[in-house]
Prior knowledge:
B: mainly alpha, C: mainly alpha, disordered N terminus
Amino acid sequence: xxxxxxxxxxxxxxxxxxxxxxxxxxxxxxxxxxTDSTGKVVTLNAIMLKHPLTQDLEKMEWLxxxxxxxxxxxxxxxxxxxxxxxxxxxxxxxxxxxLIFGQNAIVDSDYSQFPGLFQDxxxxxxxxxxxxxxxxxxxxxxxxxxxxxxxxxxxxPKYQRFWPTTVARxxxxxxxxxxxGLKQPTNxxxxxxxxxxxxxxxxxxxxxxxxxxxxxxxxxxxxxxxLSSEGITTTxxxxxxxxxxxxxxxxLYVDVRYKTLVTFLNKCFSSGLINPEVFTQDYTKFQALxxxxxxxxxxxxxxxxxxxxxxxNTLAPQYSSTAPLKVSADSTDKVSWDYNYDYLNxxxxxxxxxxxxxxxxxxMKFIDKFYDPATSIQVLFGSMGTNISDDGGSYTVLPPTDxxxxxxxxxxxxxxxxxxxxxxxDTLKLTLPTDMQSLAKQNEPLDAVMKSIDIEKxxxxxxxxxxxxxxxxTLALNNTNLGTLTSSKWASWIAKGGIDKEWDAYVSNxxxxxxxxxxxxxxxxxxxxxxxx
Amino acid sequence: xxxxLFMNILxxxxxxxxxxxxxxxxxxxxxVIFLVIAYPxxxxxxxxxxxxxxxxxxxxxxxxxxxxxxxxxxxxxDARIWSGYYNTIIYTVLGTAVNxxxxxxxxxxxxxxxxxxxxHVMLFFVITIFFNGGLIPTYLLMKELNISNTIWVFIxxxxxxxxxxxxxxxxxxxxxxxxxxxAASLDGCTHFQFFGKVVLPLSKPIIAVVxxxxxxxxxxxxxxxxxxxxxxxxxxxxxxxxxxxxxxQVFASGAGAGGASGGYAQQYADQVKYGVIIVSxxxxxxxxxxxxxxxxxxxxxGAVKG
Amino acid sequence: MINIKPRISNSSSGKGILEIxxxxxxxxxxxxxxxxxxxxxxxxxxxxxxxxxxxxxxxLAFRNFDFSKGLTGGKWVGLKYFKQxxxxxxxxxxxxxxxxxxxTSIIVGFPAxxxxxxxxxxxxxxxxKKLLQTTVYLxxxxxxxxxxxxxxxxxxxxxxxxxxxxxxxxxxxxNLLGSTSSFVPVYVGSDIWQNCGWGSIxxxxxxxxxxxxxxxxxxxxxxxxxxxxxxVDIPALIPTIIILxxxxxxxxxxxxxxxxxxxxxxLNLPVSEVIATxxxxxxxxxxxxxxxxxxxLFNTVINFFFLFSMNKISKKFADISLW
Lengths: 533, 306, 323
């Protein structure tokens, strides 16, 4: 009797465990079964590489709305840090979700290195993505960006239209200039004199010689912007040194004009005109210094994105943006600047699909929803109603509901912002938020120069060029070595001098690091691209 | 005899002076060390409640300035913190239990000099400190075994840390005399009984140390979660804190591509940075004193005799 | 105690005794020490599954990574990536920087916790001792990102408190964060600051198991404090010290990555570019799996060689070894 009872329990238990084992065993990387044709909701897995400020995707109303409209339910994995470490493992083990969102979360070289992992979207776009087709026809550059060397499309780019032509504006403390009776500098010599005045004449009026005449950092807000005074047009800040001049690809790190600039900067540094911690401070410190203390400003001359971002709301009124400088009053070099139009307004690789996705049409239809302009502006700025108002025929971006927040931060917290797929056509009428309007104004001193840049001959069209797998590897290896060499010399020559003595050995080391090889590769791709235009 | 007593007193007096000097040196060193270590820790505490612009420009030295609990508000506002704490506690407790369960018997076995194979087994273990197949094969293995994205990935795979195994073994080897086992086995004691009844009680210091190492290893681990965990519900504290923390690194590369990430946001990142350490360290701070008492003296008294 | 089970060997009797010993060593140990094997079993199983099975991945260093063919399917290229690394013009600077940092860490950083443990052991007031110990182990818990942020604030020549101290003694021109000569001391110093207290725990534990009767005996013999340390404390620590030292030899080329990466800047790059940061830039950022696997393996082999040698030396001279 007891035996029977025990047997019964054991049987029941084992059946229970067997059925449970059957339930949860599938690994959760590809979507579970579900059809969209009968109106049932399809579940898809997606990763979104989002900005750390961005709120939980589940809270974005516009996103929930388009999921419903497309008949999908997305299981989001939201990543904002350490993507580089995770990515290699995910890709190499083939363990990716149905969709991956985020600007350049996956890059061009990944498609050739991991063949068969990502879905070729060309046909799906034809059948399921009318908005994307519209974008391709209205803005053919996006199609160029999307197409890989083998002719396939693995990811969709974005176009966000409102951004300026360059990432860096040059700022000088106008209040200090006025106080000292100086004019905005127009060339390096005048700049030097202005910086000396800033340093020695206590323009912030607090009785301490605590002014920092010039400050800069790496990337776009670098003193290398002054290379433009000598006629070099950098593209996307040319961190790897490459630029195009009159159809020829060159590298600024071995250019004589770089030597001139470094010599000038060294002169400034030894006169105490540059922040002594310029190479050792981190970005936090860089920004914190610019905010000064209360009303008292610290920085005289620097580069930045936008005035209230760079200096904070209190000190922003003290600064003016200035036009690019010439080298000297009688210099004849054609003054240029850093050209970033393509990189700021277009974006590559915004969303990819796994080749293993079981519901490709549903996924594609969902992706296409992002590219409906009415949705796109919500991707960028936030939900209709809270962040944007629909004025019937045109839209206005509303100020932040939290009055302490600036519009930039508000945008980043509310929505995917620049990291989401979108298409904002040139014909769309939208009133920008205050920070972007002010940005356009601050860009005015640069407009003349930007318009004069010869896009055909003097700009590196990096956005539109795709490298083969081997060339990519060569470039990566060589550029890493070159970078170590150039960044340490840049810092040591400016801070400690010695460029004249060491120049020749340095150039020969750059060549040993593979620079001629890299330049030849870049030139080849440039020529090929130019032929297609 | 009086002379001898006198000599003794003299000896004491001499010892007293050199002892005194010694004591002064000891205390002086301790004070210096204390200050050098305590000041930055104190700085972290006051920085976590100060205005971050003032902190990075060096205006906060001994007292908080621009007092604000903004950083802590932001941290605790994120509901994931609580699930993070909960998860970490579970992983740490369960994980450490398994660690000790697997490591201590092995350490004992390896400490027996009569165990002829022990040098080979040790080599077998040590090789794994150096040679490993890399992240990708390990990741694939976890997937195959279906423990990826579950709590088991925190508990089973790295449950034996060879370094800890070695120190445990060395300790047992050094402090449990051979004669003890010989005496016990004559009485018919098996290895298991000896281990449980004699070795473990005498090894309290090393169990405390190794247990602490494992525990802290679990507590601080963010890499495992980074690679193997997808579900938010399984994330331990360190990963969540790291997410919050790394905003600063993002800002370090400049304004977001298009549209300023905002100065307001920069200040937010900084204040959170210091608060994060406090939040993640307090629990350990509370546990350590309990473990520390096992380092106190007098553990081995009387063990050798009899 | 020693049970010899005589076995009848198959060969002629001359070799008999040796055969007995040999068979005894390997096969018989299963039978005789089955309890010990049982105690080892969980550990061995875990290590086999999670450490030995994935080891097939090491061959990635000798193959081209070909995703379509899986990890083991790429074309065999032998030592191509090793050559690529060694012929790389960065090779010698990387090796030099890495070894400098590691050796300095070992030479300066290894004795520090020992010194601290002995020092704290001298304190008789239990409350003070506890306070000191707790304070001193806390820095270990500061994550690297925050630690570097802290260093940048405190060491800033203009605004950091340490910068102010330096100015007070007249060294105001030195930028600790931005010079090739100060990078290694700052890096190693901060490591010691962070880990010294934590590292002293194991030595304190070893000291705590010293029979207090030994101390009493010494005092009666009239030994001074320093002599007590020399004759009681240090001998008690020697086995632990030796084992830990041998193990630290296995880190001759391991610098850890995150802290150095965060502290790197243009001014210290000539000495701060190490193997770990290089592998990150090449391997992780541009998916060069085989290349980074090869460099990793190269690293490992050298570390293992050092450990192996040190183990042999310590076995010979101190009769203490890992195996």
